[in-house]
């Protein structure tokens, strides 16, 4: 326990949330804040999710909330979780529990009234603390000392914690990057190295979710090196990876986007990575386009850049410049910055001719329209996208007179 009241910051910075929390405590006086909320309040970070635990069973929690006029949703009854919603703000409330059986991915749980037993099933000491309505922190495993020291330790036996849920391997590196010091806990690393193969048993969606957070978190290069050294990164990206290239991208000052950073990190087939990790369609397309051609380069004139912008999304072009800068320069460079500023300031060229212009001449069949349109558009692109509607019509008439070139 500690004399420090983490609720002071909540009352000061989030008075509405603090008021809702007080109302919940009026209904469930034995409930406590748990997990990340306690951790982040103690170290002065912003809190996004407010999770509570209680010794009361889920049905009793729901009954008490409904009796008090609070909407409650049974979001995870099998794991003892319900969500109270106050003025649109969700508060997850979970019954104290212990693991009866685990298989490395899922757990069968039973309810308990023992706060320490519930804390013992959590992953890291900094996540195993709880805070009651009086602002007293209950810390059974030295989480406050570890938080102050920048030390990420598993609760109890590291191998056992990993065997219960292999995702904790990736979570370790994410939390190490955000809350830990430069050197990770040696016991944790030893356990992770020994059990790194368990990552292959995880769903790829969970793997990508954690990798995405690592890629946009702090100390990315250092974290990935630690994952490589412990044999973890090879299981996450068996297609191959190049940490050095990602480090150069970061040195260039590129945006903190997970897909852009993944494009730099992967040394193998990015489409295969996207397929295996089951990336969304949007992320898959972004990843592939970032590694595609053409690539804008410093010194190119508008007559070269305009056709690129006509055929490709601005974001794709900008991201390609970041990857090429990482390969060619590997550091901040005013010429590349100027190139991106030019691209960002250019209007996307719009081809001024349409199929109806060709059909209006009465000189082209439906099957020919597409060929004529493509041929005129290619001419328009080759001339820097500067020709207006009248010039394109004149070119169209010339193509119709001479006959469109055969498609190749």
UniProtKB/TrEMBL annotation:
Domain of life of the source: Bacteria
Cofactor(s) the protein needs: Mg(2+)
Protein name: CCA tRNA nucleotidyltransferase
Organism annotation: Komagataeibacter oboediens
A Pfam family per the record: PolyA_pol
Membership in a protein family: Belongs to the tRNA nucleotidyltransferase/poly(A) polymerase family.
Record-linked InterPro entries: Bact_CCA-adding_enz_type3_sf, NT_sf, PolA_pol_head_dom, PolyA_RNA-bd
Domain Poly A polymerase head stretches: 31-153
UniProt keywords, alphabetically: Magnesium, Metal-binding, Nucleotide-binding, Nucleotidyltransferase, RNA-binding, Transferase, tRNA processing
Organism ancestry: Bacteria, Pseudomonadati, Pseudomonadota, Alphaproteobacteria, Acetobacterales
All copies of domain tRNA nucleotidyltransferase/poly(A) polymerase RNA and SrmB- binding, residue ranges: 185-239
Keyword RNA-binding (UniProt): yes
